Amino acid sequence: MKQTMNKPTVVCTKCAWVSFAVTKAHAEAEVKTFNKYYATLSKRDQESYRGEATIDSYTCQLCGGSTFRLAKPEEIPFGSTINPVIWEDPDMNQNTPKTIQRQEDPDADQG
Fold this sequence. Notes:
Radius of gyration: 16 Å
Largest sheet: 4 strands, mixed
C-alpha cells in the first residue's frame, strides 16, 4: 500500500525533524479560520485550547527552527505524525507541490 502526502515534506536544517510545508498565505488563512471558530466558543471550551492561533506556531515542533530543505523519502518515519511549517519553495507558488510516496512499512507483520 502506498501512502501519499500532497504537501511537500521538509526537514529542519537545525535538528532534522520532519514536517510538511505550507505557504505563509495558507498558514495565515488557517489561523484566521481557527480564530474565527475560537471566538464562538464559550470560555470553558476555549480552555481546551492554548488560546488563539498565530503563524508563529508554524515552525519546527522540536527546536523552533524555521529553515528547511526537502525531505528524502527515507527520512520520513513510517506512521509518523507530522506538523505544518511555513516554507516558501519557488515551485510551491505554482501550486505544484512535490509529492513524496512511502511504501508500506517493511517491518510490518504480513501475517
